[in-house]
Design a protein that fits this description.
8-stranded mixed β-sheet; alpha+beta; globular; 587 residues; 5-stranded antiparallel β-sheet; single chain
């Protein structure tokens, strides 16, 4: 899906269309006042104060019709410059514009605004030269939005839209939006009973239902085995830590705004942990280490808590409570290259298993001029960044560099994956850290009996189980590969009266073979039960009639197919077990 914000021509058109929207709203609702109307990746939006009026879905077509009417009128869009005093006088009755004016740079002596017919708005621009060029647009949705994103402020009405150069481009984009809607993991998650949210639990705090928990458990087993085979040792650590722990690590200074508020218990001050590295530093420090012990690989499936703004929370994709597939590798400097390569190899191995092919590597570096966000040690940063470049070049993988995207303690390699719909998502990450081992005074004894400081590699292959599951739901449209599917086989007798006992025995035999099978012997028509199995996207549906019962066979149908195949029970069990063991993904 195209990123409109990054396309200069479309960005200008969409920003101009935001003003067209505001003008139409002003025509229809005379008391309307406007906050901001920026361009976003998906088009544009405008935040509007409509007084006591609350928009409904039926209002959007009316606003669209007024926008088209204004567009056909063809007024030119004219830029004006005003002094701050002139701007204050022009918008003296609009508290939102006065707030914008008051927060402008003190050195900004002139303020620009744009007029189109009877509508004028503050704006830096640029815009198209006439509203006549804004023909192919669509209002997508509306929602509430707090002024300035602050829940203590008034709730405004936010209207989203998109604008293109041609009707064909608009239609194609709307088709993509429809596809995204059908793939939306929140929609599928509700239909398949994978997870839920509830206001009594809180925003961004999903509850994994049995079906979703089963998928997550399979993912945990999968990555746990791979990590154990590669020499990882797993631990459990608390979901809280003292404020002093995060002051020692540096997170309190660099990450406090993303953490939940401090809690005082007895004489100690605690916070919900936002990440696991400080705990793992102390696990390493628990005993002395020789250079022969390294690398030491500590892994954990750890629940973390981060404060996400309410407007950013989204299903399993953006949450406030998450479970990371986390690990920290404690290595000697001479082991950095080999260990980093092993991490990249693991990432590529996992992506192969899940059929992930469209991805790219981003080397995230510090911004040398930002001394607040990044720990101020040029030598440390240069060493770490050059070491990562060296390893990536040795691996001969394509990567691009992104300044200002590093963690505060070190550079990192992020893997950006292109999903079936929507913008790229970062799934895996691998970070090089010379700082935290120093802050926690970690050591090992080298071959000369001298104490040295190890280097730490932070890495997460799935990222979080939450986001990775959301990604899988949308990639598969909920039609999970057999090894991940909550129900792998649905057993349906043609008639419960005549084949019910046989269907029950087949179901039990499948369960004994470790296959997740469910029996649907309800007193419903066969066609209804078959359609429901397809709707639930069960990989295999067994249809058992008189012939199957007589021959001691089964007839199965794959999800999405109408053809039926008949084989013996033993052949079917072997077939599905092999598919599960190979972690096969059927296309």
């Amino acid at each position: 899906m195209i990123n409109i914000k990054e396309n200069e021509k479309l960005s200008i058109m969409n920003h101009s269309c935001a003003h067209l929207l505001a003008q139409a709203v002003k025509h229809l609702y005379k008391e309307a006042k406007f906050w901001v109307g920026p361009v976003i990746e998906e088009g544009f939006y405008y935040d509007i104060d409509l007084g006591d009026k609350t928009l409904t879905d039926e209002d959007l077509p009316k606003i669209e019709r007024e926008m088209k009417k204004i567009s056909k009128d063809g007024k030119r869009i004219i830029r004006h410059e005003l002094s701050k005093e002139e701007a204050k006088e022009m918008f003296k009755d609009d508290p939102y514009k006065l707030d914008l004016i008051s927060r402008m740079d003190e050195n900004e002596e002139r303020i620009s605004c744009y007029s189109q017919g009877d509508f004028t708005d503050l704006c830096r621009g640029p815009h198209v030269d006439t509203v006549k060029k804004l023909k192919y647009f669509k209002l997508i949705k509306h929602s509430g939005a707090y002024w300035k994103g602050d829940a203590n402020n008034k709730m405004l009405q936010r209207i989203y839209g998109v604008c293109f150069e041609t009707q064909e481009d608009l239609d194609a984009y709307l088709q993509e939006l429809e596809e995204a809607k059908q793939r939306d993991h929140r929609k599928i998650g509700k239909e398949q009973e994978l997870f839920m949210t509830h206001e009594l639990v809180g925003s961004g705090m999903p509850l994994w239902l049995p079906n979703g928990a089963l998928i997550r458990h399979e993912l945990e087993n999968y990555i746990y085995k791979k990590e154990r085979d590669m020499g990882y040792n797993h631990v459990y650590t608390p979901c809280v830590g003292t404020v002093d722990l995060y002051k020692t690590s540096g997170h309190w200074d660099h990450y406090k705004e993303n953490m939940f508020p401090m809690m005082k218990v007895d004489e100690e001050e605690f916070v919900l942990r936002p990440m696991n590295c400080p705990h793992h530093m102390l696990v390493y420090k628990n005993k002395m280490h020789s250079y022969r012990d390294l690398p030491i690989r500590i892994g954990e499936f750890a629940t973390d808590f981060r404060y996400e703004a309410s407007g950013a929370v989204k299903g399993l994709e953006r949450v406030r409570c998450m479970c990371q597939n986390d690990a920290h590798l404690f290595v000697r400097p001479d082991q950095i290259g080999d260990e980093f390569k092993r991490v990249v190899s693991l990432i590529l191995d996992v992506y192969k298993d899940f059929g992930i092919k469209d991805y790219k590597f981003r080397l995230s570096l510090r911004d040398k001029n930002d001394k607040e966000k990044y720990f101020d040690d040029d030598e440390m940063w240069d060493t770490a960044e050059n070491k990562l470049r060296e390893v990536l070049n040795e691996l001969k993988v394509d990567y691009f560099e992104a300044e200002g995207e590093a963690a505060f303690y070190g550079p990192k390699l992020d893997v950006e994956v292109k999903p079936a719909v929507g913008p790229e998502v970062t799934l895996s990450t691998c970070q090089l850290d010379f700082l935290l081992p120093r802050r926690f005074e970690l050591t090992y004894v080298d071959s000369n009996g001298e104490k040295q400081t190890p280097v730490v590699i932070h890495r997460a292959i799935f990222g979080t189980f939450d986001r990775f599951t959301a990604f899988l739901i949308e990639e598969t449209k909920g039609a999970f590969p057999t090894w991940l599917a909550p129900t792998q086989v649905e057993v349906i007798p043609v008639s419960s009266e005549f084949q019910g006992d046989y269907a029950s025995s087949v179901t039990e035999k499948l369960k004994e073979a470790g296959i997740r099978a469910e029996l649907d012997d309800r007193n419903e028509k066969l066609g209804y039960r078959l359609r429901e199995s397809q709707t639930k996207k069960v990989p295999y549906t067994l249809i058992l009639g008189d012939k199957e019962k007589q021959d001691n066979t089964i007839s199965y149908r794959l999800h999405g197919q109408k053809e039926t195949t008949t084989i013996s029970q033993e052949e079917f069990i072997k077939l599905i077990q092999e598919e599960i063991n190979k972690k096969e993904i059927r296309k």
